[in-house]
Structures are given as C-alpha cells and as structure tokens.
Design goal:
The complex is a heterodimer of chains A (161) and B (107).
Chain A (H helix, E strand, L loop, with lengths): L6 E8 L6 E4 L29 E9 L8 E10 L7 E7 L14 E2 L22 E7 L12 E9 L1
Antiparallel strand pairs in A: 1-2, 1-3, 3-7, 4-8, 5-6, 5-7
Chain B lengths: L5 E6 L2 E7 L12 E5 L8 E3 L4 E4 L4 E15 L4 E14 L14
Parallel strand pairs in B: 4-7
Antiparallel strand pairs in B: 1-2, 1-3, 3-5, 6-7
Chain lengths: 161, 107
C-alpha cells in the first residue's frame, strides 16, 4: 500500500460576498477586474491605483488514502520577481471574505519575500475543510513605471502528517 | 505517484516498526536509541533526521513524519511554476501519552 498525499487546491473566490464563486487558481495575476486567472492585458491597473483584491484559500478535497491526520503550517510568500517603483503586494490572513474591489484593504502587510513562519491560519483534518483566506492586493503609485509588471512567483506551502 | 516503499525503524539491529507506505502518524517508541532506514525512497528530499543514522528519542517525545508541499503560481505571468515536496522528519513532544511502547496508553 502506498500512501497517497492529500488532494489540496488553491481556490480563488470571486463575486459578491453573499454568494461568491470558487475557482481553482492556476495563476495569481492581478488586474482591474474581479476575475479568477485574470488576463492581465485585458484588465491593466492604472498607475497610482490598486489591483482588485484577490482572495485565495486552501481547499482540501481529499485527505488521501489512508487519510492524513492533519494539514497545517500554511505559508505564503513572494519567492521571486522584482517589484517596480512603489509596487508592492500586500497580504492579509483573514477568515472574512469581502467582495473584491480596488479599494485598499485594511490590516495588510507586505507579503514576505522568503518563507516565513506560519502566516495563514488553518489546522485542517477532514475533507472539504478550508484555510483562512490569503488576501492579496497589488498597489502602485503615480511613480510606478507604465508597462507590464515583472513576473513573480508566489509560493504556498503546507505540511501534512 | 509512488513516493517510497517503506520505512523501517531498528533497535539493536532488530526491526521494531516497519511501515508499508509513509507513516502518517507520530510513532510512539521507547526511550531508547534507534536507527531509521528509508529504503526505496524515490525522489523528494528528506529534511531532519538523515536515513540510516542512529538517533535517540528523549522521554516524552515521539518521532513524527511530515510531508511539506510547495506550490508556486505565477503572478503577472501564466501557469503553475513549481510543485515540489519534501519530507520533514523530526522529534516532537508527545501529547498526553507517556513515552513508551505503542500499546502504552497511560497518561
């Protein structure tokens, strides 16, 4: 018998907070619209404004066979990719989803640039459980250079036992 | 994905715990010295106790196995950039149970 790891997806939520729609995130692109896996060129961010807030969470679809006991120690950080002038990705660990918009989300901090200690709440031990939301929002200033932002890689890690 | 075949823990040359598949629970062992062997491990990375090394578990602690998965997604780019895993093997405090044999349920 070979132990199968738990099946976990990074889920993005979009839409009104009353009835948000989940999608599997295949990228973490930022833009000026509330869409999962957004096409950047179709929704550019005006310098001096924010992107729409992005709301991700881990979703356990299957704890594996035999089932893992626990999934925790969830972390998110920016692993690579340089910022332009005054560009920053802000992060917030929260259990409350808010309808995405370009309004500055309060209570954030710049996303870590190396693997931090646990910064996402979640002690998950059953199928169909979720972590707290990993809210990300990219902010710019009038000094941010126009044109495409540099590609960055956002990493999410978790331990399973 | 086939990650590994089994884990074998030896004490004084005698197998005391063999797990077919990677263990997903904390092993509760006597407070003695052990040798951990991970034959057949395929790919991945082991962090913590190296395989085939002698180690001891202090009273009140147990051996724990974790699998750490990391997923990298592009931001202002496209597609998944990375998906990797490694094993974290360490010694952590037991919860409630005394340090003892696996059938020792005293608290």
């Amino acid at each position: 018998m070979i132990l199968m790891a738990a099946s976990v997806i990074i889920e993005e939520m979009n839409g009104d907070s009353g009835s948000p729609t989940p999608s599997t995130a295949t990228n973490m692109n930022f833009g000026s619209a509330d869409e999962a896996n957004i096409v950047v060129a179709d929704h550019p961010i005006t310098c001096g404004t924010n992107s729409f807030s992005k709301w991700y969470r881990l979703h356990i679809t299957d704890m594996g066979t035999p089932a893992s006991n626990l999934l925790n120690n969830i972390k998110i950080w920016k692993d690579s990719g340089a910022y332009k002038t005054d560009e920053v990705i802000n992060f917030k660990n929260t259990d409350t989803y808010v309808t995405p918009s370009a309004t500055t989300v309060g209570g954030t901090a710049a996303i870590p640039t190396s693997a931090p200690a646990t910064n996402v709440t979640g002690e998950l031990d059953a199928d169909e459980e979720y972590s707290y939301y990993m809210m990300l929002q990219l902010s710019t200033s009038a000094s941010t250079e126009a044109g495409s932002a540099n590609q960055k890689v956002i990493k999410v890690s978790y331990d399973e036992q | 994905m086939r990650d590994h075949e089994y884990v074998l823990i030896q004490r004084n040359g005698e197998a005391i715990h063999a797990v077919d598949g990677f263990p997903n629970e904390m092993l509760r062992l006597n407070c003695k010295t052990f040798i951990l062997r991970l034959p057949g491990l395929e790919g991945g990375e082991i962090v913590g106790l190296a395989p085939d090394v002698e180690f001891s578990i202090p009273e009140g602690f147990g051996l724990i196995f974790k699998r750490r998965t990391t997923v990298g997604l592009a931001c202002n780019g496209s597609g998944e950039q990375e998906r990797g895993w490694k094993y974290i093997i360490g010694i952590e405090p037991l919860k409630q149970e005394r340090c003892g044999a696996t059938d020792d349920t005293r608290t």
